[in-house]
Amino acid sequence: MGLNTVRFNQSDSSTDREFSRRWSLSLAVMVYVALLRGINVGGKNKVDMRQLKATVEEVGLTEVSTYINSGNVVFKSSSRNRAELVARLEAAIKESFGFPVSVLLRDRAAMQKVAKALPNGWTNDDVMRCDVLFLWRDFDRASIIDDLPIRPEIEDVFYVPGAVIWRVDRVNQMKSRLSRVVGTPLYKGMTIRNCNTVRKLVEMMEAVH
């Protein structure tokens, strides 16, 4: 009888620990970056970063910071419902600026994996161009490489979950055919940041506690 009682208590204790673990995870604050697509390009879809920061704060998100005009917003949220967060952000941005903007959301862990995958010698400078093509879910697959007009003799490209990483020497940039994806459905399923921006965003995200 006593042995059975001990087993019951141990099982009960294990259940409590698992409940506590899940409860703690549910309360943990997540750090995200919102990547806005197609803003401040060629004088179109102008989005002021100060106004964008205020707009995101009005949604109820905290520790909001922006980085350069391509539309990158780091923030904290207790929500793990990414679809709901994206919907809130897109609605708020449309109301604030008067036009729709697609938002791609990545959490800190996902961004860290992309940054870690970047070879140390790959940079975006006068000698080399290196971009990260962040993919929406419908295009997020390893075989996406086959849909890119890559010239392997002059450029390097590989897939990581959620993105494609591409680099070319500046001397060969005009020979690259990657720009041919502009205007295609695939192009509309991605938003592009150079590797320097990606590394900086990860740095910003890691600084949020």
- How much of the polypeptide forms β-strand, as a percent range? 15-25%
Average pLDDT: 91
CATH level 4 superfamily of the largest domain: bacterial protein sp0830 like
Order of helices and strands: HEHEEHEHEEEHEH
So what's the oligomer here?
single chain
| Measured distance between first and last alpha carbons | 49 Å
Main sheet: which strands, in order across? Answer: 2-3-1-4
Structural domains: how many: 2
Q: Helical residue percent?
A: 25-40%
Largest sheet: number of strands, sense, barrel closure: 4 strands, antiparallel
Global Rg: 21 Å
* Uncertain spans: 1-8
SSE class: alpha+beta
Number of strands: 8
CATH topology heading of the largest domain:
Alpha-Beta Plaits
Shape: globular
CATH class of the largest domain: Alpha Beta
The CATH architecture classification of the largest domain is 2-Layer Sandwich
List the total number of helices: 6
Question: What would your notes on this structure say?
Answer:
The chain is α+β, with helices and mostly antiparallel strands and 209 residues long. The chain has two domains: 27-107, SP0830-like domains (Alpha-Beta Plaits, 2-Layer Sandwich); 111-206, bacterial protein sp0830 like (Alpha-Beta Plaits), CATH 3.30.70.1260. 37% of the residues lie in helices and 23% in strands. The strands form two sheets. A four-stranded antiparallel β-sheet has the order 2-3-1-4, sandwiched between helices. It has a four-stranded antiparallel β-sheet with strand order 6-7-5-8. The longest helix has 26 residues, at 2-27.
